[in-house]
Task: inverse folding
C-alpha cells in the first residue's frame, strides 16, 4: 500500500465506516439528512450482501465502496431535493433472477387462466378435472407474482419479510382459485353443492387480507418519508403529484387492463355468446 492509497480500517462496523466517510464534511442540516438516508441504505445493503454469504466486514467495506465519495452526493444534491430527483438517486433496479421468475409466472398465469376459461365455456373440449388443474396453475401464477414482488426491495420500500409475503401469496391464491372454481360451478360443470368450497376459500382470503392489512407496518425508506413531508411536516401533494412517473405507469396499466377486457369480451361474444361478456370485466 502506497502513501497515496486511502486507508480503510478493518471491521464490519458500518456506522464507524460511514462516520469516516463523512470526516471533514461540514455537517449542515442537508449533510446530516443525507448521512441518515445513506446510513439506512447502507444497513439494508450490508444485510443483502451478508445474505449472499459475504462476511460482515467484507459486506460493510463493499457497501461503503459502492457508495463512492459522499462529497459528490452533496455537490449534486439541491437544497431541498424533490421526489423525482431522489427516486432517481436511490433507484433500485430489479434483480435479473426476479425478472425471469416474474416472466415465467406471468406466462403460467396467462396460459392457465385462458385455457381454463376456454375449457369452462366449452370452446375447448377438456375434462373438468383438467379445467380445475389449469385454474390452479393460473391462480398459483397470480399468487407468485404478488408474493415475489412484495419480497423484493424497491426504490421506495424495503423488502417485505418472507413470512408476510407468503401470507399475501396464500391470500391471493385462495381468492383467485376460489372465484375460478365458483365460476366453474356456476357454469354447471360441477354439482351445485360444491359451491361451499370456493365460498370458504374466498372468505378465508378476505379474512387473511384483512389481517395482513391491519398488521402492516411502514416499509417506506427514510428518503421517501423525508421528501414526502414539507417544511411544516405535512405531506406535500398527492402521490401522483410527487411522482409523475408513477402516474404515467398507472395510466398505462389502466389502459392495458381496459383494452384487454374489451378484447376478451369481443372474443367471448363471438365464441360462446353475450351472456359471458361480464366475465371479461370481472
Result:
Amino acid at each position: 500500500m502506497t502513501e497515496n492509497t486511502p486507508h480503510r480500517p478493518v471491521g464490519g462496523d458500518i456506522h464507524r465506516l460511514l462516520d469516516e466517510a463523512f470526516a471533514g464534511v461540514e455537517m449542515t442540516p442537508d449533510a446530516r439528512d443525507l448521512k441518515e438516508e445513506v446510513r439506512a441504505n447502507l444497513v439494508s445493503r450490508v444485510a443483502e450482501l451478508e445474505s449472499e454469504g459475504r462476511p460482515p466486514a467484507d459486506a460493510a467495506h463493499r457497501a461503503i465502496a459502492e457508495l463512492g465519495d459522499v462529497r459528490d452526493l452533496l455537490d449534486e444534491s439541491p437544497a431541498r431535493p424533490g421526489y423525482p430527483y431522489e427516486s432517481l438517486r436511490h433507484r433500485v433496479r430489479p434483480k435479473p433472477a426476479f425478472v425471469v421468475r416474474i416472466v415465467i409466472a406471468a406466462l403460467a398465469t396467462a396460459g392457465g387462466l385462458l385455457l381454463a376459461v376456454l375449457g369452462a365455456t366449452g370452446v375447448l373440449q377438456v375434462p373438468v378435472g383438467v379445467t380445475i388443474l389449469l385454474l390452479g396453475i393460473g391462480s398459483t401464477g397470480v399468487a407468485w407474482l404478488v408474493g415475489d414482488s412484495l419480497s423484493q426491495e424497491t426504490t421506495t420500500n424495503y423488502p417485505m419479510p418472507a413470512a408476510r409475503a407468503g401470507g399475501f401469496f396464500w391470500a391471493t391464491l385462495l381468492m383467485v382459485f376460489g372465484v375460478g372454481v365458483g365460476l366453474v360451478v356456476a357454469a354447471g360443470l360441477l354439482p351445485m353443492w360444491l359451491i361451499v368450497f370456493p365460498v370458504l376459500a374466498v372468505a378465508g382470503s378476505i379474512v387473511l387480507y384483512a389481517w395482513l392489512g391491519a398488521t402492516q407496518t411502514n416499509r417506506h425508506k427514510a428518503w421517501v418519508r423525508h421528501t414526502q413531508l414539507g417544511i411544516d411536516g405535512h405531506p406535500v401533494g398527492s402521490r401522483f403529484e410527487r411522482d409523475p412517473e408513477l402516474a404515467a405507469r398507472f395510466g398505462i396499466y389502466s389502459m392495458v387492463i381496459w383494452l384487454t377486457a374489451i378484447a376478451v369480451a369481443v372474443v367471448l361474444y363471438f365464441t360462446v355468446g353475450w351472456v359471458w361478456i361480464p366475465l371479461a370485466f370481472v
